[in-house]
Amino acid sequence: MSIFKEFSKLEPVRQEIIKPLSDLEILLDIEKKIFSLYNIHFRGKSHIENGNEALYDFILKYTFSKIPQSAIHPSIIQKYIEARDNTELNFQDGVVRGMYSGALLEIVCSQTEEPVIVDGKGKTFHFLFNHVRNAKNVSIKNFKGDLILSHAGRAGTVTNLSVEEIVGDSLLYKAASEKGNCEQLSIKNVYGIETLKSAGFCYGRLAFLDLHNISGGYTLSNTEGHYGYLSHVTISELKNCESALFGLGSDAKVEHIHLSQIRSEDLLTRAVIRKGTLNYATFRNITGKDLLSSAGNQEGLISHIAFQDTHNVRTLFDTEKDEGKVEHVLREPHYSARQKEIFDTIDTLALTMHTFSPPEQKKKHLEIAELQKELFTEEK
């Protein structure tokens, strides 16, 4: 038999077909390579902590250089989150994965105007979107985890951000710090301490912010310290919030805020000290021990403040020390019929603010600001 006939009986060699990687597989492969490079260039050679800018810059630049255009679309963020969590990693690896998720979000937001909607469906993801510097039109809900969105907007801009149904501590820790900017934020149904702690620190800016149904101490504590700026804020239904807004606005400017249905001991204690200012603030239905205790000291200024239904809370105790000033204060029962009507309108706008989108909320914040001015100019 011819050797050629023997070969002819063999099955033809099949050429292996390499299936292209899906968009998600590409992202997971990039993440794997980032961990490898992190182990070579960062681990053990310098102290890597949650606030390390150099590490985030490295992750952002590397990811942007490797991710194909086909993988940059809003739905890819949801797919990545469904494939990952941060429960099994140690602290430093958790930070790296959190920064990678932040880099993905920043890249997607830079390439599209479409909204990015992420539903964690109850998943635990510590450090989620950690350090995302620039982002817009983002909705995040149903997550568990600590330090979610920590350092968001640091030295950058985050706008039109909605966050809800979060269980964890230190949400948005140090957001908008280091000359950063966070604008049009809606935060509701959060269970954990230190929400927005130290946000806006060092020349940062927070504007058009609504907080609703927050449970946990030290909410907005030490926020806008060191020459920061906080304006157009509504806060409603804070529960079990010990020392909420403690130290708010030290060395900073705070204006046009309204607080309603708050249960907190030592609310706004030591706020706007050291030349800080608080202007146009209205308070209704506040329960607790003290409100604005020791606030405005050390050349601070508290002006255009109005109280209603504060339930025997001691207000403005131990203020005006070290050249601090308190001026233009309205209290019950010295309101005219028109002032009561204005207060009712402000409170209704604030209590329903969370039902609107952040852009719609901005219009209502501006309406509240005008009503607050009218409250103090209305003749009795």
Protein described:
- The protein has 7 helices and 12 strands.
- With 380 residues, the chain is an alpha/beta fold.
- The strands form 2 sheets. Strands 1-2-3-4-5-6-7-8-10-12 form a 10-stranded parallel β-sheet, sandwiched between helices. It has a two-stranded parallel ribbon with strand order 9-11.
- The protein starts with a helix and ends with a helix.
The portion of residues assigned to helices is 25-40%
The low-confidence parts are none
- Give the quaternary arrangement of the chains: single chain
Number of domains: 2
Mean pLDDT rating: 90
What gross morphology would you assign? elongated
Count of helix runs: 7
Note the main sheet: 10 strands, parallel
Which band does the percent of strand residues land in? 25-35%
Structure summary, number of beta strands: 12
What structural class do the secondary elements suggest?
alpha/beta
The topology string of helices and strands comes to HHHHHEEEEEEEEEEEEHH
Q: Kindly provide the radius of gyration, computed on alpha-carbon positions and rounded to a whole number of angstroms.
A: 25 Å
The end-to-end span amounts to 118 Å
Order of strands side by side in the largest beta sheet? 1-2-3-4-5-6-7-8-10-12
Write the layout of secondary structure elements.
Layout: H1 3-8, H2 23-41, H3 53-66, H4 75-83, H5 91-111, E1 116-124, E2 134-144, E3 157-167, E4 181-191, E5 205-215, E6 229-239, E7 253-263, E8 277-287, E9 290-291, E10 301-308, E11 314-315, E12 325-330, H6 337-352, H7 358-377
Parallel strand pairs: 1-2, 2-3, 3-4, 4-5, 5-6, 6-7, 7-8, 8-10, 9-11, 10-12
